[in-house]
Amino acid sequence: MRDFPNWPDPRAHILRHQPDTAMLYFAPATLQATAKRFQRGFDGLVTYAVKANMGEEVLANLVTAGLRAFDVASPREMYAVRAVCADAVLHYNNPVRSNEEIAVAVALGVRSFSVDCERELDKLAGVAPGSEMTVRLALPVSGAAYDFGEKFGVGPDRAVVLLQKVVAHGFIPSMTFHPGTQCADPAAWGAYIKVVADVARKAGVRLARLNVGGGFAAHRWGAAPDLEKIFSHIRREVNSCFGAHAPELVCEPGRAMVADAFTLVTRVKALRDSGAVFLNDGIYGGLTEARDIGCTDRVRAMGPDGTWRKDAPKARVVYGPTCDSIDRLPDPLPLPGDMAEGDYVFFDGMGAYSRSLSTGFNGYGLSDPVTVAAL
Ligand SMILES: *Cc1c(COP(=O)(O)O)cnc(C)c1O
């Protein structure tokens, strides 16, 4: 693994280098603390959804913090995990796979797959005998910032049939769901767990495991979400719906695991008389998600000399650096009145879906992360 220079915090690095490209600062201590929080609080196997951020320093630090199982969606994600942990367990939970992708997974020792239709189950039948097949359930459930159920998952009736087919094929039967990303409402998990128990009962199948997905909210707005409240709600619902036959639990957080471990630092390229700001990063870079689920309110501004801007915030239209007119944050952002050209704007909690969605459009984009002791 690359040896990154270590800085006490982003401010120290900025004072020394005055970076003029958008930067991600990474605090391994924060990532490891979050991984330990999940492992301490969640009563089951904690895995990490690699797609949220597949940086090798992320994967390596999760392994250091004790994670050994990863949710992967593609061969490249599998290889990225294997590069930092040769014996990591891989759960291949992208329910749509080409035969070539399946061959790679089998060669890499994958023994757990999610399925949401019979055709996909048939593709796996000859090649992955004895594996765990996790039937993915989709329900219309609210509570998340972004619903994942529109693309993947089967409804309860078809899940019953699929689960029976899993058993008929000789696979180990499990189930999964994903409540949607940035979900802070424990009731979303509760609603799914009730239906999963019902599906298993109707199918006459005892589930080996229940994977309760990712979706755990990160600290994006207002107060930090109460993860432990979600964990205990999940355990309570599983016990009450399954009684003595409770399956082992698995979770696969992406966002909530990695978000707080990174701060995105952008720079003010220009200020207009209207108060509008042009940053050197936008929706084609680390701020892509702002368009879909809104921008975080965890924003700070600092002058190039390291002084924090303190004036009352002013709602400013924020443009990104590219020449595309949609490169603009959806809503005006409250930014200090005394901001100036050359200032740095910090967006905290930006480790998830920032770098993984960032493009190099128009020659902009993010540099490799700089490691810091604290953000
Ligand atoms: C994206 C995804 C996750 C992670 O979701 P977060 O909202 O980032 O926690 C977990 N599982 C599956 C199957 C996914 O597709």
UniProtKB/TrEMBL annotation:
One GO cellular component, as annotated: cytoplasm
Named cofactor requirement(s): pyridoxal 5'-phosphate
Molecular function terms, GO-annotated: ornithine decarboxylase activity
EC number(s) on file: 4.1.1.17
Catalysed conversion reaction: L-ornithine + H(+) = putrescine + CO2
Pathway it works in: Amine and polyamine biosynthesis; putrescine biosynthesis via L-ornithine pathway; putrescine from L-ornithine: step 1/1
Location of the active site: C323 (proton donor)
Positions of the Orn/DAP/Arg decarboxylase 2 N-terminal domain: 32-259
Keyword Transmembrane: no
Residues where N6-(pyridoxal phosphate)lysine is found: K51
Keywords: Lyase, Pyridoxal phosphate
UniProt-listed InterPro entries: Ala_racemase/Decarboxylase_C (IPR009006), De-COase2_N (IPR022644), De-COase2_pyr-phos_BS (IPR022653), Orn/DAP/Arg_de-COase (IPR000183), Orn_de-COase (IPR002433), PLP-binding_barrel (IPR029066)
Family: Belongs to the Orn/Lys/Arg decarboxylase class-II family.
Protein name: ornithine decarboxylase
